[in-house]
Specification:
Distance between the termini: 121 Å
Radius of gyration: 38 Å
Order of helices and strands: EHEEHEEEEHEEEEEEHH
Strand order of the largest sheet: 1-3-2-6-5-4
Strand content: 35-45%
Length: 239
């Protein structure tokens, strides 16, 4: 999306790590401008202005004007950046010149709206699978985002990339059958988990039954042995 934002830039006449440190110490960051079949230009910009753009609602799809002191003023987009992994500070940025007369390929976020009937009526679950689609359009027609209505979704139904409403010069580049969101039934394991746990829980005293039975068998065998011994003992007594 094109916005009326102007970012001032200065040409860097020297390069290298020392020059980059001096640039950052002065409150600016090193950057490069390229594209549109023109030579790349090393520049320095205010990092706060760039962070503000990339963190806006249009993010990296924002087209703004880069005004180079003593040079060109051209529409650009942020195509890459380097961030300090510990402090999170912006260290470097790459800008690409944008020809407003030519189509460009971009990734646009997709949001869902409404409560699916598969959730509200059937007690299912709405799963969001894809949160962005890739399209091609003229720079001035880049949308901030798409919204797709999922209210009518029943369990087993889905919304796909081909269901996203496009307008003007917009053309879907990604696979049209890509699932954006679908309504699914709750897993059976979640429903029967509690009853299974209850069945698996042993009843108090049940674990002792096998031991009682085994002891009972030994007790039954003992009298038989004693019966065999008693006649011999009695014979000895008679003698």
């Amino acid at each position: 999306m094109r916005k009326d934002i102007n970012v001032a830039a200065e040409v860097r006449t020297s390069r290298g790590k020392n020059e980059a440190r001096r640039t950052r110490k002065a409150g600016r960051i090193p950057a490069v401008l390229y594209g549109a079949f023109q030579d790349p230009v090393s520049i320095a910009v205010n990092p706060r202005e760039i962070v503000k753009i990339t963190h806006s609602s249009t993010g990296y799809n924002t087209i703004f004007n880069l005004a180079i002191q003593g040079g060109e003023t051209t529409p650009v987009m942020v195509v890459d950046q380097q961030v300090d992994p510990l402090k999170g500070n912006l260290l470097h940025a790459d800008f690409k010149r944008i020809d407003l007369t030519k189509r460009i390929r971009i990734t646009v976020p997709v949001h869902t709206a409404g409560e699916a009937k598969g959730v509200k009526v059937q007690g299912g679950l709405l799963e969001v699978i894809t949160r962005a689609i890739e399209i091609e359009c003229l720079p001035d027609e880049i949308p901030e985002g798409f919204t797709i209505d999922v209210t009518e979704l029943m369990i087993g139904q889905s919304k796909r990339a081909s269901d996203v409403a496009l307008s003007g010069s917009m053309k879907l580049v990604g696979a049209p059958d890509t699932v954006i969101a679908h309504a699914v039934a709750l897993r059976a394991e979640e429903v029967v988990a509690a009853p299974e746990a209850a069945v698996a829980t042993p009843v108090a005293g049940a674990a002792a039954e096998p031991e009682v039975i085994k002891k009972g068998k030994k007790d039954e065998e003992a009298p038989a042995e004693e019966k065999g011994k008693k006649p011999a003992e009695e014979k000895g007594k008679k003698k």
